[in-house]
From TrEMBL:
Family: Belongs to the short-chain dehydrogenases/reductases (SDR) family.
Keywords, in A-Z order: Oxidoreductase
Pfam families documented for this protein: adh_short_C2
Gene3D superfamilies the UniProt entry points to: NAD(P)-binding Rossmann-like Domain
Presence of keyword Oxidoreductase: yes
Protein's UniProt keywords contain Membrane: no
InterPro entries assigned to the protein according to its UniProt record, in alphabetical order: KR_dom, NAD(P)-bd_dom_sf, Sc_DH/Rdtase_CS, SDR_DHRS6-like, SDR_fam
MF terms (GO), sorted A to Z: oxidoreductase activity
Residue ranges constituting the Ketoreductase domain according to the UniProt record: 7-186
PANTHER family with a match to the protein in the record: DIHYDROANTICAPSIN 7-DEHYDROGENASE (PTHR43477)
Protein name: Oxidoreductase
Superkingdom, natural source: Bacteria
Amino acid sequence: MNRFEGKTVLVTGGNSGIGLATAQAFAAEGARVVITGRDEASLAAARETLGANAIAIRNVTGTVAAARELAQRLADEHVRLDAVFVNAGIATFAPFTDIDEKAWDETFAINVKGPYFQIQSLAPLLNQGASIVLNGSINAHIGMPMSSVYAASKAALVSLAKTLSAELLPRGARVNVVSPGPIATPLHEKLGLVDDAAAQLQSQIPLGRFGKSSEVAATVLHLAAQESGFIVGTEIVIDGGMSQL
Ligand code: NDP
């Protein structure tokens, strides 16, 4: 399929994991892809895989200034966006009693404040009929111990998909959210989710395996494409049944 021929898409956190797989899936279907992230080396490596006209921008999300800078950089390059995957995020896992102000602020800055002001800043650059997809998590819906601050940040995104849809519809844009369950990405190593901990988590997934980044990417592309034009303000859960069965 070539659903994104002539389209331009932005993937935040497009240099790793789910974001990289989604950026590559968009590129494979003809899109010009813009990615953001923090790490220069993986940004450059990712850009190499995305075709000659891909753009990689170092942009550390979490502040209004960073959101404005990103939009200004895109405007300077005359970029207009047909789809945005607001994916960059961090996972903070610790007992509720150990979460301090720094961990709270960092999680909400990167996972909520950054996306909120990115969308606000990017709104003038959206083409008619644009689609915004947020990356949530099934942690927004399940009471997993140690996930309180992360889960709350992702629940905020589920809410934003609805309210921002209502506000952006007059501009012809749709906002939806995907909520993945455990997906095998570098995030799991960053969290120390290996060996016994990984096996324990896997045992909670009815399908008996971790999800793949490509499986999330496929759903994001569906929500970004015209074929899903009647899907607005809603959530698609991609979790092997973990939050459902
Ligand atoms: P990765 O750690 O592989 O990717 C995280 C991405 O976010 C990286 O590209 C990283 O860039 C970027 N990022 C993090 N913080 C910032 C920041 N302050 N500014 C800019 N970029 C930033 O993990 P995943 O691919 O697994 O995670 C992607 C998203 O998927 C996250 O929002 C996560 O919460 C969500 N998710 C993941 C699940 C999983 O099981 N893997 C399940 C449910 C949701 P850099 O590498 O340069 O730091």
